[in-house]
Amino acid sequence: MANPLYKEFDLVIIGGGIVGTWVAKKALKHNLRIAVVEIGPASSINLPDSKPAIKFNERVNMGANEARNQVLTGNSKYWGGGLISNNANSLMNILGLNNQDKIVNEILSEYENVQKELNVGNIIREDISQLTGNETKLASVQVLSGKKRHLWRNFYKNNSSNELLNIFTKANIIDIQVTNDKVEYLKLLLTSNEIILIKSNCYLLSAGVIDSNLFVQKYFNENISYNYNGLGKGLHDHWSINIAKVIWNKDTFFSTLYPLKFVKGKIIGKRIELVSKYDNKTKGFLHLQANYDEIEPYNSIKSLLFNFDKSLISIIKVIIHLLKYFPQLIKIGWFRYAKKELYISKGTVINLVLDFESVSDELNKIKYSNSKADLNWNVRENDINNFLDFYFQAKNIFDNVIENKQMLYFVSNNKTELKKYFCENVIDAYHLGGGIPISKYVNYNFTFSNLNNFYILGTAIFNRPGIANPVLTLLALGNIFIKNITSNKN
Length: 490
What we know:
This protein is an alpha/beta fold.
């Protein structure tokens, strides 16, 4: 066999998903020579199953399967676009800090920079405790439109001829050479059976939580200065569960939370943020959610468009059905473009949803062994206790703000029934994290263990999930990472 091809870069990014692509985009602005190494293909068309497959020893974590997309741009195609900031206290919990350290202030500052770059507004939190009779905040949620979410895909398209950017898709890392306190090179096997040695002074692992944990356990179990047995433990997510049915009426407190508003090209939602009184630490939030697959005329229009085949018969069917819903379509258009919000007719049944942090229990863990991945994931006792606390907080809040009790139907008042309901109906929110927590295995400059040129950035380094969707926090951390390595380079 011929000698492997040798290539050298300023930055090697392992995992070309939301975080890896964002970092690559930032790095190009500093004229760094970049290699993006992606185990999956460049396109999500006919996307194969992620490997290695996961064996679930307890409960299935849906996000570990369905949000584990080994493809260039990762979950950017499937992500709902929500951008939600963590406050200082939540960031301290995420980072395993007892005090508001410098990095917390840096993240808070970078939130504004990311929001400005993506052209979304700042997250606003308003204390509504006096109204609800409970310690609560009304928080805004910024949602990226579909077009803005194309940023990740367009980055690679727009830089396809950029000599500074090298993309290796379907690339299998077959070896990593580690000497003392640094990674010397990666050995890649490409689909052409060509072997390439990639060398850099800076390697960034930015894969999803599952693949980041498996990667570290596979390649570094003999090269870290900490206790290897703790790696992969303390996984966490957000739990999500419907806790009440709401009979929609716009002229009530419900309109404070719903529907989404469209303001100057921005999509804005609202939610109520809570803190568990059970442990005085776990964060949760309440929001309203409609299932448009069950609401007319949205469901019928969606079904028509899904089955639309451009034939004359199909066109006639669409026109007939649109005429049937013409008065409602006029209302939808009026609300969307005049009132800048989605139209929901009075009396429509929508869900009051509770989302909250799962506990970082060491029983929730992933282990790599003999090319296989085993995941232990389940509802733990502390999750149940936090749920009960949040549930009755929510009931108390809406008892205070909604006079007509016929508009709101909670699941139950019985704790035994509620525990059973929670265990049978709760789902994970596709925000899995943990296993390689910062402060324990990752340093605050994002270097892993004693390796001074290998960095990790992703939810795998989170100690707790945070208030909600982690994307905004990850992008802010990406900005900080680039500032750190470019300042060192200069």
